[in-house]
């Protein structure tokens, strides 16, 4: 059997200011894609809303100003400003995950990412962010960092749909090569899944992909570290502690969920200080199915983080500890889909017999 090896990369993008020229930002992405090509990378993951600053931190009163941050249309790959990226992906035959703010043909707003197959020269899959964090209305405190995703986007309506990426690995099994009744774990074209930023903190999202045999999850993100209104105030923290905690939680969820679903993950940050002051963690990383970070960004700037991964390494977990077929107990999990918020047990009486 062909060993299912891939060279992959997270393409971290540093600061992008509010008034940045989209064409220049796309040129930074092109430069990283060229570096990926020179290193023989087959799949590159770019961050969430990569083409612009992370605009949901601002309240826009003027719809025309807001619209500058959205890509127009259901298929953005021929939009003038961003086309050079897709052209290079196609000519280099490098596949890409790219996040952007989507304004659909019928005027709806989503926080979206696409998987563009450089091999096939077209969009293979689209995902729209399901777990939108933050608020609809800005915080009363004028000093607060807002995250108005619930104002600008609808929750994603495409579900968590895993897909196979054709031609990324030559020589793998295809339909008909294996008897229909045989188990195909660890064979065929790679099984991929996409999430966006806050989704990575939700085990339900990972398990939805885990149940489709996912081998590699891709996540782009914009994570502020000094955003006390968003993360809460219960424990007083220094700036250094707040920053360390944001990095810790990012690494924790990427490693734990990769392990619990026996899959690789690639996370790509929009990092640095937008407009010289709005902080975003870096920490772009590639994590193994055993939950180890095997490559990690060293800067808060534009940076390509690469690793060689063997998808067959997913089999160990999928066939043992996390063999869902043998070990999951769905009869005990009904609350997960029947209830949204927390319902606590009643308070105890003063004297418990
Ligand atoms: N972009 C995005 O989803 N950011 C959020 C910030 C935290 S909101 C509490 C994240 O999960 O990283």
3D structure, described in words:
With 353 residues, the protein is an alpha/beta fold. The protein has a single domain (5-338), classed as Carbon-nitrogen hydrolase (Nitrilase/N-carbamoyl-D-aminoacid amidohydrolase). It is 24% helix and 22% strand. It has ten helices and 15 strands. The chain has helices at 22-38, 63-67, 83-92, 149-152, 203-210, 228-231, 239-260, 314-319, 324-327, 335-338; strands spanning 5-12, 43-45, 71-72, 95-103, 109-117, 122-128, 163-164, 191-196, 216-221, 264-269, 272-274, 278-280, 285-287, 293-296, 303-310. Strands 1, 2, 3, 4, 5, 6 and 15 form a seven-stranded mixed β-sheet that branches. A hairpin with a 5-residue loop joins strand 13 (285-287) and strand 14 (293-296). Helix 1 packs parallel to helix 3. The chain starts with a strand and ends in a 15-residue tail after the last helix. The mean pLDDT is 96. It binds 4-methylsulfanyl-2-ureido-butyric acid. 4-methylsulfanyl-2-ureido-butyric acid (CDT) binds next to helix 6. Residues 6-311 form the CN hydrolase domain. Pfam families: CN_hydrolase.
Offer a concise description of the structure.
With 353 residues, the protein is α/β, with parallel strands linked by helices. 24% of the residues lie in helices and 22% in strands. The chain has helices spanning 22-38, 63-67, 83-92, 149-152, 203-210, 228-231, 239-260, 314-319, 324-327, 335-338, and strands at 5-12, 43-45, 71-72, 95-103, 109-117, 122-128, 163-164, 191-196, 216-221, 264-269, 272-274, 278-280, 285-287, 293-296, 303-310.
Average residue pLDDT: 96
Distinct compounds present: 4-methylsulfanyl-2-ureido-butyric acid
Count up the helices: 10
In N-to-C order, the SSE pattern is EHEHEHEEEHEEHEHHEEEEEEHHH
Number of domains: 1
Residues in helix, %: 10-25%
Biggest β-sheet strands, sense, barrel: 7 strands, mixed
What does the radius of gyration come to? 21 Å
CATH architecture tag: 4-Layer Sandwich
How would you sum up the global shape?
globular
Highest CATH level, the class: Alpha Beta
CATH H-level name... which superfamily?
Carbon-nitrogen hydrolase
Question: What is the CATH topology classification name?
Answer: Nitrilase/N-carbamoyl-D-aminoacid amidohydrolase
Keywords: Hydrolase
Protein name: Carbon-nitrogen hydrolase
GO molecular function: hydrolase activity, acting on carbon-nitrogen (but not peptide) bonds, in linear amides
Pfam families: CN_hydrolase
């Amino acid at each position: 059997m062909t060993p299912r090896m891939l060279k992959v990369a997270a393409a971290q993008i540093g600061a992008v200011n509010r008034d940045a020229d989209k064409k220049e930002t796309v040129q930074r992405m092109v430069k990283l894609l060229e570096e990926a090509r020179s290193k023989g990378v087959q799949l590159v993951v770019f961050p969430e809303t990569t083409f612009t600053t992370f605009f949901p931190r601002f309240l826009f009163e003027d719809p025309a100003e807001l619209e500058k941050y959205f890509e127009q249309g259901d298929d953005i790959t021929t939009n003038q400003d961003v086309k050079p990226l897709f052209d290079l992906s196609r000519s280099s035959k490098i596949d890409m995950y790219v996040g952007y703010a989507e304004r659909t043909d019928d005027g709806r707003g989503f926080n979206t990412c696409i998987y563009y197959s450089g091999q096939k020269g077209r969009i293979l899959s689209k995902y729209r962010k399901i777990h939108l964090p933050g608020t609809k209305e800005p915080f009363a405190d004028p000093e607060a960092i807002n995250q108005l995703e619930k104002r600008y986007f609808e929750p994603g309506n495409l579900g968590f749909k895993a897909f196979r990426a054709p031609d990324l690995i030559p020589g793998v099994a295809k339909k008909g090569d294996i008897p229909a009744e045989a188990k195909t774990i660890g064979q065929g074209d790679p099984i991929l899944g996409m999430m966006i930023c806050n989704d990575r903190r939700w085990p339900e999202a990972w398990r939805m992909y885990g149940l489709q045999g996912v081998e590699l999850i891709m996540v782009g993100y914009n994570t502020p570290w000094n955003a006390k209104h968003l993360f809460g105030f219960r424990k007083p923290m220094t700036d250094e502690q707040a920053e360390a905690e944001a990095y810790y939680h990012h690494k924790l969820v990427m490693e734990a969920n990769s392990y619990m679903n026996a899959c690789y993950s690639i996370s790509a940050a929009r990092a640095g200080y937008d407009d010289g002051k709005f902080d975003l963690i870096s920490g772009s990383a590639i994590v193994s199915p055993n939950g180890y970070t095997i490559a990690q960004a060293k800067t808060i700037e534009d940076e390509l983080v690469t690793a060689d991964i063997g998808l067959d390494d997913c089999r160990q977990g999928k066939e043992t500890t996390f063999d869902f077929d043998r070990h999951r107990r769905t009869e005990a999990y009904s609350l997960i889909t029947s209830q949204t918020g927390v319902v606590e047990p009643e308070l105890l009486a003063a004297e418990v017999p």
